[in-house]
Each structure stands twice: as C-alpha cells, then as structure tokens.
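Please, does this match?
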Amino acid sequence: MRRNVKHYCSLSKKMVLGASLALIASGSVWATNGNSPSPHADMIQSIMQQKTIKGTVVDETGEPIIGANVVEKGTTNGVITDFNGEFTLNVPLNCTVQISYIGYNTQEVKITSTTQTLNIKMVEDSETLDEVVVVGYGVQKKANLTGAVASVDFEEQAKSRPVTTVSAALAGLSAGVQVMQNSGQPGSDGATIRVRGVGTLNDANPLVLIDGMEGSMDNINAQDIETISILKDAASCAIYGSRAANGVILINTKRGKGRISVNYSGRFSLASPTKLVDFVNNYADYMELINESFENIGQPIHFSQHTIDTWREKSLHPNDVNELGVPNYVAYPNTNWQDVIFKNGVINDHNVSLSGGTEKVRFLTSLGYLDNPGLVDNTGIKKYKLRVNLEADVSKWLTVGTRVYGDMEDKDAGNFSSANNFLRQTTPGIYPEWNGAYGYPEAPEESPTANGILQFLNNRNGAIKKTNVNATAFSKEEFYKLKYCSTVVYMVPRA
C-alpha cells in the first residue's frame, strides 16, 4: 500500500509538471497570436536575455582601480570594483555599461551576446584641473587629501583683472588667507600674507615655493602662473618641516604642450588716488585756524592779523606782481599739496609667450614688460621678466628639464618712504617750484622748518636697478614604480 502511495505521488508530480509546461507553452502561443501580452512570456524572455559579465578596471600603468563605478546606463543597476579592480554584473543583452572614476574619462561598452570579459583601461582626464592640487614636490588627487588645501586658478585671474604684483592679487581668492597691502608705491606694493592668523615660530610669513623651489612670488610674471595651491594647516609641516608652520603657497607655472603657439596679452590701465584727505589750501584760513588753536591752549597767537589781511588781499589778484617782480600767486601762495603731488597714471603691461612641444619635448618661453609710473613723481618702476621652461623625456623612466626665470627692474629713486609724514607737516604758504627753485615759507611768522614736500621727494635722482636670475635643473626617474626627483639650483643674487 505504501509503495502504491509513493508511486501515486510520483505520478502526480509528473502530471503537475507536464500541466505547467503545457500552460507555459499555451501562454507563449497566446502571447504571440493574441492581442494581450503574457506576463509569463515576458519573464521567460527577460531571464533568457540576462547576461553575467566579468571584468577588470586598471589605470594607464596597469594598476587596478579600487572603487570604480560599473553601472548599466540609465539604471541604478551597478557595482564597484574590488581590491583587485575586478567586478561581476548581471545585465540584459544589447545594453550599455558605463565605467567611471574621479579624475578619469568615463568609458562606455556595448554588451552583446559575444561579450564575456571586459578589460577596461581608464585614461586620466587632463581637463579636470580642479580635482588635482600640488602637494610637496608632486601632485595628488584633491579627494585623497586630508589637510586643508585651496587651489586657485590664477591663469583666469591674470586674464580678468590688472595684476602688478602676485601677492596683492591673492586678496579675496581663498578663505582663511589674509592679504594686506601696506604701500602703493610701485616696487614696494607687495602684500603681507597671513594664513589662518599670525604664527609665533620665526616670522609669520608663509613658505612660498615656485615649481618646487623657494622664492618670491612677486619676482615672477603673473601671466606665467597656471595654478596656486595654498596649504593652510599643520599637516603641511610633515612635508616641509617647521618652515611650513605658517602655511605654504605652492606656485605652478605653465608648461608647453601641443602644437607650437604664440600668445600675446596687453593691458592699459588707469591708476588714480582714492580716499584723499581734504587739506586746507587757503593760507589765510590756515593761519586763522592756527591762531585759534594757540588761543585754546592759552598761548599768544602765532600769525599777526596784518599778515592774514595781506594774504587775503593779494590772493584776490594772483597775477599781479610785487615790488620784486614776483607774481602774487608765488609770493603769496595758496597751495593744495595733494593736487601737486598726486596724479593719474597709465600702467602698461605686455606679455608674449612661445610654447609647444611633442610627446618627448615640451617648452615655454615668455617675456613680460611692466611700466608703472606711480601716482607720485619720481616713484615709478619698469620691470622686464623672462622665463624658459623646458623638459624632455629621455626614456620611459627618465625625464630631464630646467626652469629658468629672471627679472630686471628700474625703480625711480624718489624718497617716498616718509612722504606722508612730510605731507602732514607742510603748509599752503609754500609755492612748490618757480624758476627752477623749490619754494620756502613766505610768511615771516611761519616756521622756517615748514616742509616743501616736493623738494623732499626729489632729493634723490636716478634709478635703483635690480637683477635677479634663478635657474633650476631637474631630473625625474622612475624605477619599479618608485619615483625619484633630483634638483640643482643656481641663483644670481640681486644687485
């Protein structure tokens, strides 16, 4: 009896299976010949068209890329590569698979019935410059950094606004970086930079590296700068030592690439003084105010009423001459010293560069000229700047090159260091210059030491010439994925 039951059960299973196949077959026919689709047919067709693909994702050197995204295009069906850069994914036939990773170009692969294994080699995206910053003596992906780093696309900044000094042009470009310009005199208008406050070790200035070598950012041509990276926190000390305690500013200059090209940029800009102080330029009013100040402290008046009245009378007829044949506007002056000293200036800034190269050799040569006459006579400056960047791939593992830059400046010798102090001590009762001679106090009660600031500014003539040359030769070697860089520096001190 038990054997019959077992046989019956086995027979029943076979009957159910046969009935199921018959229903599926009939459903397929119905879906083909009828007007309504069959869900059973769609499911079977979908299962039959699914395909399991395997593959490996590597970079240009053959190293596996961990965490690359492998996704069926237009869906959320995807995986990421493992520690070996490998992946496995179930996708339908005739779909498109996208492979992407930060800093690399996205690739797409069409899946067909013959697709079995995918070997994907990712190519770095050279256009995503904001994803890469300069650290130490090399580069690193920004996403992999643990320290606080700001990257500035200085090439665009140099194109969009007039830049006479690189340090001053950094103002407002990075959070936590304070830029203070203490002087407007050409040649002395470099700014003081503080990264996240004032440090207490040595001085408070950040370490400035130009193409890996320490230097002054104001000595290089702003048009030659490609990017600037600012390392703000203490993590930079692990690379550069205690000199990096106040931050590090890394400047990366342009390099030649592609076909040979000639670039020129020129700019004419107008400079004018701002936030000027209103001076008393009527000497009679000036003398009355001085007398009032003496009375307020209980002292006798300094200027007589006769002198004040005489000045007011003569000022009504400035073109008349006195008994010595001197015009009244000279003998009884009412000088506005701000109008005498300050003026508008036209700044000329011109740059030309020649760059290019092949896969083996790359070069860039640039020449810059800056003429800034200043807002005060005898305080202008002219700068000439030259740069040569050259590198060549001697072999697959050896690259040699050089970075040479120099500047020469001619700075007017005008004594402007204490000009503001002298400006505060001068009076309207001094005529600036007449018949080749500087003026002196005309009122008999005026102090003989009252300043004629124009004489002070011009007591030194000629030009202060300075020359600076910096040459760096370097080589890059790569052995078994270990990179080594050696550098030789030659500097000519400023004269």
In short: The CA atoms of residues 202 and 239 lie 18 Å apart. The longest strand covers residues 463-479.
